[in-house]
Amino acid sequence: MGGGGGGGGGGKSEKARRSSARVRLWVARASTVLLWTCLVQLAAYRELWAPSVLSRWPGCLNQPHVVQRPSERVADAGQTQAARALVVLPPKRIYRNNGYLMVSCNGGLNQMRAAICDMVTIARYLNVTLIVPELDKASFWADPSDFQDIFDVDYFIASLRDEVRILKQLPPRLKRRVEMGSLRSLPPVSWSDIGYYRRQILPLVKKYKVVHLNRTDARLANNGLPVEMQRLRCRVNYNALRFTPEIEDLGRRLVRALRRNGPFVVLHLRYEMDMLAFSGCTHGCSSMEAQELTKMRYAYPWWKEKVIDSDAKRKDGLCPLTPEETALVLQALGIDRGYQIYIAAGEIYGGQRRMAALTSAYPNVVRKETLLPWEVGLFQNHSSQMAALDYMVSLESDVFIPTYDGNMAKVVEGHRRYLGFRKTVLLDRRRIVELVDEYRNGTLRWTDFSSAVMASHTSRMGEPSRRQTVPDRPKEEDYFYANPHECLHQPEDVSAL
Question: Its Gene Ontology biological processes (predicted)?
Answer without folding.
Answer: fucose metabolic process
